[in-house]
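COMPLEX REQUEST
Ligand: phosphoric acid mono(formamide)ester
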Amino acid sequence: MKHLITTSDFSNDEILKLFNDAKLFLDLSSNKLLEGKLIVTLFFENSTRTRSSFEIAAKRLGADVVNLEVQTSSTKKGETVEDTVANLNAMKPDAIIIRHSECGLPNSLKSYVNCPILNAGDGKNAHPTQALLDLFTIMEHFNYDVKDKNIAIVGDIFNSRVASSNLELLPRFGLKPILVTPKEFRVVSQYKTVKNINKVIDKLDVIMSLRVQHERHTFTLSDDELEENTKKYSKKYCITKKMMGSRDILLMHPGPVNRNIDISDEMLEDPRSKVLEQVRNGVAVRMACLKKLILNQ
Ligand code: CP
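STATUS: Structure written out below.
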């Protein structure tokens, strides 16, 4: 039995096969591949895209879905996550999808289950299906010729599970990451890191903008300080039409987008922005992941 905890759980060949399936699912039409299967989702952190994307993917494949409402679950009476998962596992689901703020938690739950676990994001550690859908979006755009394409990952790299999963995955397919980040959000990295995107923008093929993850910051700011910091940040790191010029750069963002802080309103409307295409591709990629892990094919 296989789990999807980090992108390293899938080999490159497995990922290319997964993408072949995702292409077949791209019209998001319904089929009966997972008819009779039951999938449980457990989101201990907020989500719009990932939770609904997994649920739609499962339903498009004909599976039933049980969403455990964490706020009204017995975790609020002191039950541990491990016991919660062991109890859900006793009801014989065919897969469990979990998001939690604790890094490494989905991995530690593997010994409590008899079905695949899909990590829907653990703290700042990993978000494997996001990275897979990001790579799929890039691959589709460049007709699967992505070797040596330069991708700038822009923003709060330190706190982003999307960045860490993409930094594991994208170089395996020949993409070249460049990190664009203020010193507060820097990570120790083998990749070129700059503070100013203008230094590298002429050689970019892709920009992946990230949200500043205030909820993961250990420092607290007053409202005034936060406003001042946000103003300073957006001046340098918000992706605008002026910054992009007429360059042929694919613009991505995992969402949620903080408008005019991460990406300007105008650039979100620009045809180079693939933000909603990422969301649509996400359903197809998650359909392929569920098929692979539940049917083992
Ligand atoms: N991209 C992403 O993980 O979005 P949500 O937090 O809305 O699921």
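REMARKS: DSSP finds ten helices and nine strands in the chain. The beta strands are 38-43, 64-68, 95-100, 117-122, 150-154, 176-180, 193-194, 206-209, 250-252.
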